[in-house]
Amino acid sequence: MREKILAFIEKNSRFDLKELAIILGVDEAAVVDELAAMEREKIICGYHTMIDWDKTDTDKVTALIEVKVTPQRGQGFDKIAERIFNYPEVNTVYLISGGYDLLVILEGKSIRDVSQFVSDKLSTLDSVLSTATHFILKKYKDHGTIIGKMSKDERMLVSP
């Protein structure tokens, strides 16, 4: 039952519990109890709302920052990752494979705000060797959800 609940709420965290219980063939109390248990066990870590900020008056810039670091003896990447994720501007930190070690995702009001964070806070950390900043220009799909309405293909059909 646990995996089925997770599959449903991953796509829509506002799923009606009564409907979910009917789909799973259990009573609503069982679903509520299972959700509470998964929250206590930190299997469910939070609930989020996806917002298309381009359709609001809020100025928001999202950046993906690749960070190369020197791992610390006995702590690997965890200690530097913790220092980075404790900044309030930082939304996400991943340990990644490839040419960089960490991927940091953060939001700011402008490109200048993000650039200033990188130069004043991130790049000055002792373990940070280098960074590469990439700004999100447009979102097409996020967390499995298509953002906005895709335009209709208006090309003419050409047949041989």
Automatic annotation (TrEMBL):
Residue span, Transcription regulator AsnC/Lrp ligand binding domain: 65-138
Sample GO molecular function, one term: sequence-specific DNA binding
Top-level taxonomic group: Bacteria
InterPro entries: Dimeric_a/b-barrel, Tscrpt_reg_AsnC-like, Tscrpt_reg_AsnC/Lrp_C, WH-like_DNA-bd_sf, WH_DNA-bd_sf
Annotated GO CC locations: cytosol
Listed Pfam families: AsnC_trans_reg (PF01037)
GO terms, biological process: response to amino acid
PANTHER family on file: LEUCINE-RESPONSIVE REGULATORY PROTEIN, TRANSCRIPTIONAL REGULATOR AZLB
The protein, known as: Lrp/AsnC family transcriptional regulator
